[in-house]
Specification:
Rossmann fold, 4 helices, single chain, 7 strands, alpha/beta, 152 residues
Length: 152
């Protein structure tokens, strides 16, 4: 739960600093950050603004206007669907996906698939917290993955 982090302006600024520094050191060019509904929306835009790039939302089904790409995926407790606007990125654009937490990896994998359909180049999946015992990062296959904090 990142709620305490969001309540503390110094801690939140430090988080954004850490993510910005990691991305600047890792990638010379990023076109967009793509954030997962909903906590990726809290982290992604301030980092994107600092990097001088755009932010693309990946949302739960039925929330985005216009034509969308949609994917259904399994969660530990059922099924869900994610969508991205069909014109959100151009083929070949470099994207980093951001969220607060990686657990089983289902949502992150679905987001990767949506961006692959749009022919984006996924540079990395980036999260604040990783629950390592659930092995979600293994589902990402060859996509680079980075987490600030890991818990077993």
């Amino acid at each position: 739960d990142i709620s305490p982090l969001l309540k503390d302006p110094v801690a939140f600024r430090t988080l954004i600093d850490l993510l910005e520094n990691h991305l600047r050191a890792s990638f010379p060019k990023i076109d967009f950050l793509a954030g997962l509904d909903s906590r990726g929306f809290l982290i992604g835009p301030p980092v994107a603004q600092r990097l001088g790039i755009g932010f693309v939302p990946i949302r739960k089904k039925g929330k985005l206007p216009g034509p969308t790409e949609s994917i259904s995926y399994s969660l530990e407790y059922g099924k869900a669907e994610l969508e991205i606007q069909s014109d959100a990125v151009e083929p070949g654009q470099k994207v980093v996906i951001v969220d607060d937490l990686l657990a089983t990896g289902g949502t992150m994998c679905a987001a990767c698939e949506l961006l692959k359909r749009l022919k984006a180049e996924i540079l990395e999946c980036l999260v604040v917290i990783e629950l390592k015992a659930l092995k979600g990062s293994e589902k990402l296959n060859s996509i680079p993955f980075y987490s600030l904090l890991q818990y077993d």
